[in-house]
Amino acid sequence: MTTELHTLAGLVSHTSTQGIPTLHAATSANEITAGLFFRVGRADETLATAGITHLVEHLALHRLGLSDLHYNGATANAYTLFHVTGSEEEVVRYLNSVCEALRGDLPMDRLETEKEILRTEAAGRGGGPAHQMPLWRYGAQSYGLSSYNELGTWNLTPDQVRHWAQTRFTRDNAVLWITSDQVPAGLDLTLPTGSRLPAPAPTSALPVTPAYIHGDDGHVVMTSVVRRSTAASVFADVLGRALFQDLRQEGGYSYSAEADYSPRDADFATLTAYADSLPQKQDAVVGGFIDTLARLRAGRIEQSELDSVRGKLLKMYDVPDLGAASLPSYALSLLLGHRILSPDQHRAELNAVTVADLRAVAREAWDGALLQVPGRGVDWAGLTLAPQYSQTSVTGTRHQSLENDDVTLVIGTEGVSLLTPRGPVTVRFDATAAMTTRPDGARVLTGHDGFSVTVEPTLYRGITPERIAALDAAVPRQAAVPMPARDPDRIPHPRERETSGGRRNGNTGTGKSTWGWTLALWTVGLLTAVWGLLCAVITADEAGAENPEWDAVTGVWIMWLPLVAVTVALYRARRRRRG
Questions:
Q1: CA 313 distance to own-chain centroid
Q2: Beta strands of 215-312 (E only): which ranges?
Q3: Cis peptide before 207 (omega within 30 of 0)
């Protein structure tokens, strides 16, 4: 047990339960709450096995079935939590059931059903405006995996799931907390021995920051990684208030404007800021958002702003059962290896934060910032567009697109590249995070950097089964993710296209151009009009008309109106076929 826990003497007690570090504190509530943390989460997985931790969580809870007991599980980037609220007897039964399953009795007969449940859960879960930010910052690995679907729910085997549970859900990789003045009797939390796993090392897909990406209309998002500190947590509140003041109360551009500070690992946290907008106001929101960040970096922060945030944070200690309320935070810090502060120590640090400290955090946040903006870019603000294309391409067999002459797929011995007019997209075989495979030959390769290349045999020339087999042999076996067969109508086919000489894949009959008919009609119409004009003038003159020329022109226009109508109809028909 870390010596830092001695700072909590009189507030939180600490002990060990079957080898698991345990924190507990009394509560005045009628029921007790307990949580069992494990230092394993989505960031520990690979793209090909994504979802394996979530599967273990679901399987471990299955035997508890329907109950009035309030319990659940949660899988985050760096940890998994099983938590429960109930009577002492109910809490003991819950924790014993979870650990019994984890130590070797997971109901593998439920594996396929739980996989389908997870896919259904993902389909109904909205990604949110910031969903793609981890992918662009970290790539298709470590903390970037939270941007991806759980591909492992398609192909994970019982042996893989068992091994993950036995090596990650161990007593040495766990922390228990209970809102009770003592550890309840009857607990059996026997788990395999192991070791405390450090939080995953972060990866990077951004060569330079601050950077920006383009996103959906109506949303401006910024994320940054800052060192964990009391000043950084205060800054997040100051930033949220500043955005709300500038963008909503003064500018009237946004309804929601907020910021959040969330620990990532022992040493760093993720700072997230968000503002919404109407499409016609989004340029003003982007400009105002960046101006607010610039104001804070310059240190133009009123002391009253800092004092207001400080006062709000200090009030969190004015709660009953402070020790019990603090248990989840203390347990997670212990799990991740972050320093543990007593309430007095944290109060002292809050009172010591200055405007200069906030300015330093603002500059650190800007230096590592990634912005997602709608519409136009923000190079003018000193941000760099995140890479949209790969720096290199591979050599190999070239397969021209059947839809676009300017696009070529290259399959080589080192990887695949999609060559486009704006640049290549390359996935190297030795840096493939995952490759999904379909029985019809389709392959989707995703690199560790987040770039993805889709190989559809129906959309490129010369992609034979032999080429697909060679591709499969080159990709590491652990990266392959077999997917189910697609319905025939879901297999893509080349779209018809046009070139300067007409349709490359033109049909007969209704696919022919209407310009020939239009030219012929206008030629006949012109000759008819000239002849009609001469005849009308001569006839009107012989009849003694008062204005023979005007009568002639009127007659010609009457003759031309049907011709104009037919021409417009032919033009519209041609436009519909082009669409």
A1: 30
A2: 219-227, 257-263, 268-276
A3: no
Once rounded to an integer, what is the mean pLDDT over residues 73-97?
96
The mean pLDDT of 411-430, rounded to a whole number, is: 97
DSSP secondary structure of 415-463: EEEEEETTEEEEEEGGGEEEEEE-TTS-EEEEETTS-EEEE-GGGBTT-
What does pTM read for this prediction?
0.84
Contact between 448 and 436 under an 8 Å Cβ cutoff? The reply is no
Q: For residue 125, name the pLDDT band (cuts at 50, 70, 90).
A: confident
CB atoms within 10 A of CB 78: 23
Pick from 176, 202, 203, 205: nearest CA to 189: 176
Look at residue 496 in the predicted model and tell me its pLDDT. Answer: 72
495: pLDDT confidence band, cut at 50, 70 and 90?
confident
Average pLDDT, the chain: 88
- Of residues 6 and 71, more confidently modeled: 71
Helix, strand, or coil (residue 260): strand
For the ranges 136-140, 161-165, 314-318, 498-502, the lowest mean pLDDT is seen at 498-502
Provide the percentage of residues in the chain whose pLDDT is more than 70.
Answer: 84
Long-range interactions of 375-379: CB distance < 8 A, separation 24+: 375/214, 375/217, 375/282, 375/283, 375/286, 376/283, 377/212, 377/214, 378/212, 378/286, 378/290
- Number of neighbours of residue 568 by Cβ within 10 angstroms: 10
Element (H, E) at 212: strand 211-214
Strand partners, 435: 445, 480
DSSP string, 311-343: HHHHGGGSSSSHHHHHHHHHHHHHHHT-----H
Alpha-carbon distance 44 to 249, whole Å? 42
Residue type, 532: G
Read off the DSSP letter of residue 60: H
Which of 149, 153, 142, 144 lies closest to 43, judged by CA?
142
Q: How many Cβ atoms are within 10 Å of 109's Cβ, its own excluded?
A: 9
Residues in the chain: 579
Q: Pairing state of beta strands 13-17 and 480-482?
A: unpaired
Q: Cα(438)–Cα(462) distance, rounded to whole angstroms?
A: 18
User: Six-digit token pair at 248?
Assistant: 């909503």
Alpha-carbon distance of 411 to 294, in angstroms, equals 46
> CA-CA distance, 521 to 417, in Å (whole number)?
50
To the nearest 10°, report the CA torsion of 516, 522, 527, 528: 120
Highest mean pLDDT pick, 206-215, 530-539, 570-579? 206-215
C-alpha 23/C-alpha 13 separation (Å) is 6
